[in-house]
Design goal:
Layout: E1 2-4, E2 8-14, E3 19-24, E4 27-29, E5 35-37, E6 40-44, E7 49-55, E8 58-59, E9 63-72, E10 78-89, H1 97-101, H2 109-125, H3 130-135, H4 137-146, E11 159-161, E12 166-178, H5 181-335, H6 337-358, H7 374-389
Antiparallel strand pairs: 1-4, 2-3, 2-5, 2-8, 6-7, 9-10, 10-12, 11-12
Length: 390
């Protein structure tokens, strides 16, 4: 049995069936009678040497691989680079046997990685001078390892080895040292010279800055002196003008004061007259308003009195009418219906009884002014006379 560690994989080959399988950790593997682990032989050391590490489990990373690389620039300067690569294996589907078997396609992936990277870096460094590489070593190596994206024209962030799904995500340049002593001495001299040139340029820039500051200070001082002289001349001019005005005032002061006093007195009198007229107008306005208010109050009082008197008369008439109505109703109620009817039909009943006592069956009474239809009347009379004969 074998305990497969976490984030690792082992390949088991069956000699009988000629098939292999990959097991991902963490897991416990038990070999069959015809199975055997695939042994990995990896490179190690700096610079890398083959067959230095033998292992059954393949660590999937991420991890680092370091290597020494000897490069030569276009001006034949040989340099030793100490470089580390950050790598990891990426498997999308661990259940896919074909995809998992890619992890073990390259027996020494460390040596293959370091050789491939060293070849790219040597080719990139050989096309630049030592001075350019010394200034832009990180950029040159990054572009050599990862390349440039054709769509965005920017450096790629990782590189993939499709044979075993190995990804390199970063490159760390630990050191850059010349191989030849003469080159090392020349590099030291160039560094010292660059430091001296930088120091001298900083000193020159400081001197120029001090001279510029001094020139600006002198210019500001001279300009301030000129401005002060101009202010002094303006002050002197104002003083002379004030002295001339003072002399003119002294010569014409009395006449001007008298004229001003007369004008002031006339102005005060006119203002007093205007104020008096304004006060009179205000008094008249107040009197008019008070009289108008008095008349309005008297008119409103008269109207109110007339309205109240009319209301009283109306109330009195209504009460009298009610009293008369009640009196009549009480009289009617006291006499009774039959008494009133007898009083109303009394004269007619008296006349009827009187005619009946005289033996008259009909009568006609007129005053001579009302016309009478005698034909009808005679016919009626004759009719009444003929009825007893029948």
């Amino acid at each position: 049995t074998f305990q497969v560690p976490h984030n690792a994989a082992v390949q088991i080959y069956d000699y009988k069936s000629k098939n292999s399988r990959v097991v991902f950790g963490p897991d416990l593997v038990m070999l069959g009678p015809d199975e055997q682990f695939t042994q990995l032989s990896l490179s190690a050391g700096k610079p890398k040497k083959g067959n230095m590490i033998r292992s059954v489990a393949l660590l999937l990373g991420p991890d680092f691989a370091s290597d020494f690389i000897i490069v030569e620039t276009s001006d034949h300067a040989r340099l030793q680079l100490d470089i580390s690569y950050n790598w990891h294996f990426q498997t999308k589907d661990t259940n896919n046997e074909k995809e998992a078997a890619k992890l073990f396609c390259v027996a020494d992936f460390v040596g293959d990685l370091c050789k491939s990277m060293a070849s790219k870096i040597r080719g990139a460094v050989s096309s630049v001078t030592f001075d350019d590489f010394h200034k832009n070593s990180a950029k040159i190596i990054q572009l050599a390892v990862f390349g440039v994206d054709a769509d965005t024209n920017s450096p790629k962030e990782e590189i993939c080895f499709p044979q075993n799904n190995l990804y390199v995500t970063s490159v760390d340049i630990k050191s850059v040292e010349p191989v030849d002593q003469r080159t090392r001495d020349s590099l030291q001299k160039s560094v010292t010279l660059a430091i001296e040139i930088t120091t001298q340029s900083q000193e020159a820039a400081a001197r120029r800055e001090a001279e510029r500051t001094e020139q600006e200070s002198r210019g500001r001082l001279e300009r301030q002196r000129i401005e002060d002289e101009a202010l002094a001349e303006n002050s002197r001019k104002e003083l002379l003008s004030l002295q001339a005005e003072s002399a003119a005032v002294e010569s014409t002061g009395q006449a001007k004061a008298e004229a001003f006093s007369r004008a002031e007195a006339a102005r005060i009198e006119a203002e007093a007259a205007v104020q008096g007229a304004t006060l009179k107008a205000e008094a008249l306005n107040i009197e008019t308003k008070s009289e108008l208010e008095r008349m309005n109050a008297a008119r409103e009082a008269d109207i109110k009195f007339a309205l109240e008197q009319n209301n009283l008369e109306i109330d009195k008439a209504e009460k009298m009418a009610k009293i008369e109505t009640d009196k009549f109703n009480q009289m009617v109620a006291a006499l009774g219906k039959e008494t009133i009817q007898a009083m109303a039909s009394g004269p007619q009943d008296h006349q009827v009884k009187m005619l009946q006592s005289l033996g008259l069956s009909s009568t006609l009474i007129t005053d001579g002014r009302t016309p009478i239809n005698l034909l009808n009347t005679a016919g009626g009379l004759l009719g009444n006379l003929s009825q007893p004969q029948k």
